Amino acid sequence: MVGSGLPPCAGAKPPSRSERPAGRATLLPMVMSIERPKLEGNVAVGANRQLGFAEFGDPLGRAMFWLHGTPGARRQIPVEARAYAAHHGIRLIGIDRPGIGSSTPHTYANVLAFADDLRTIADVLGIGQMAVIGLSGGGPYTLACAAAMPDRVVVAGVLGGVAPTVGEEGIGGGLMGFGSKVAPALPLIGLPLRLAAVGMVRAIRPIAPVALYAYGRISPPGDRRLLERPEFGAMFLDDLLNGSRKQLAAPFADVAVFAKDWGFRLDEVKVPVRWWHGDKDHIVPFAHGEHVVGRLPDAELTALAGESHLGGLGVAEEIMGSLMELWDAVDEKR
């Protein structure tokens, strides 16, 4: 059984449990209640740095790391995905990136550098082999982990993932096209933007469900359908309000690192990759998914008809099932 693999890294402190009782429901105004993670804490990943994590599902199951979008945090995992994990032997783990939740602010040299942190977290949690899945801004980091750890990442999944914007593999357009233009100015304007973002979240906290509903009303039909579902609203609000209580630097760090060379080439990702993308995505164009998948050695693209940027979250059970079947197929070939 996968999950008892490698020993903790020397010098890494064991994960600390959240001070809040695990498993107790959080009631969000005007939306359904949502269960807290079974285990939640922090892992030391470097000198004076830590990253937060949240576990769902079967603690003895095969490990699947879920990398959140931009913005997002460790609890940005659909309720259906959590339930599927519990009933199908999956140890589902959400990971914060630096500058969100209880994670230490840090700017990676490139996207690839994140893989060292995930490797450390896997070591501390006793995980050998794993699947990695990333939503939107979590997509580049998912590919980085697959490129850096082909001996441990068995399969990878991407939901509406961001594509490279620079170099031979770069593609323009979409929101990241704008982000690439803003990125050079972030060293100067990043701090005011981060403070403004935290202030905005604090200001809307009392009316967060109403604000989410308003955002849903101006979203494309696909995303609107998801955001109007109580379980999705509860998940997004719980993740946003919990993750941004003290800081909101991670989205700006993502934009900065996405706009640079990622530190690896797409053809260096030898791990099987399965990619789901809404064909009406208004944030990361569907063409970006086609662009990346066409450059990966072993990848398949599934178009989500009529769906927009969040479409992959609506078929999380199907996606997790597909990745586990692919994992079985990889094991059979070994």
Automatic annotation (TrEMBL):
The AB hydrolase-1 domain, residue ranges: 67-153
Keywords, comma-separated and alphabetical: Hydrolase
Superkingdom of source: Bacteria
SUPFAM superfamilies: alpha/beta-Hydrolases
GO MF, any single term: hydrolase activity
InterPro entries: AB_hydrolase, AB_hydrolase_1, AB_hydrolase_fold
Region annotation (Disordered) ranges: 1-22
Protein name, entry field: Alpha/beta hydrolase
